[in-house]
């Protein structure tokens, strides 16, 4: 199960369609608050989140996961890419970082890599 968090509905829908076409189960959220209201469950294998979300942004979302000791791989996407944002994302523990529009196959490959790495760490 992949969770997608992006405040732009067209981007969110596009990513969801791409991931579903690749065989993933997907849940989509418009904000970090919506994700946390739903609840992060054991079903979540990876999160794809926009860095620049209103309210709880992607970096804060990741920090809250760390604080709650929830080890879920996080892949960041953004339309406002710059060196400081990219650096902060990787420092926060991002598995990958993509500029929108996202290359679908690269995103899928990154998700598969993140899930494989996570399964190796837990076995």
Give an overview of the whole structure.
The model has no long low-confidence stretch (mean pLDDT 92). The two termini are 19 Å apart. This protein has a five-stranded parallel beta sheet with strand order 2-1-3-4-5, with helices on both faces. The longest helix is centred in the C-terminal third of the chain and has 19 residues, at 104-122. The protein is built from five helices and five strands. It has a single domain (2-122), classed as Response regulator (Rossmann fold, 3-Layer(aba) Sandwich), CATH 3.40.50. The protein is globular, with a radius of gyration of 13 Å. It is α/β, with parallel strands linked by helices.
Report the structural category.
alpha/beta
Output the strand order for the largest sheet: 2-1-3-4-5
Low-pLDDT sequence parts: none
Task: List the helices and strands in order.
Answer: EHEHEHEHEH
Characterize the largest beta sheet: strand count, sense, and whether it forms a barrel. Answer: 5 strands, parallel
Please report the total strand number as a whole number: 5
Round the mean pLDDT to the nearest integer and report it.
Answer: 92
Query: Helix share of residues?
Result: 40-55%
């Amino acid at each position: 199960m992949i969770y997608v968090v992006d405040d732009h509905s067209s981007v969110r829908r596009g990513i969801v369609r791409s991931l579903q076409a690749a065989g993933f189960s997907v849940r989509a959220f418009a904000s970090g608050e919506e994700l946390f209201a739903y609840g992060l469950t054991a079903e979540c294998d990876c999160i794809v989140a926009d860095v620049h979300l209103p309210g709880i942004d992607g970096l804060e979302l990741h920090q809250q996961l760390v604080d709650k000791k929830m080890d879920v791989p996080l892949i960041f996407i953004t339309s406002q890419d710059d060196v400081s944002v990219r650096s902060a994302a990787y420092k926060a523990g991002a598995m990958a970082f993509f500029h929108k529009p996202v290359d679908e196959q690269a995103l899928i490959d990154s998700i598969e890599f993140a899930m494989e790495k996570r399964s190796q760490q837990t076995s």
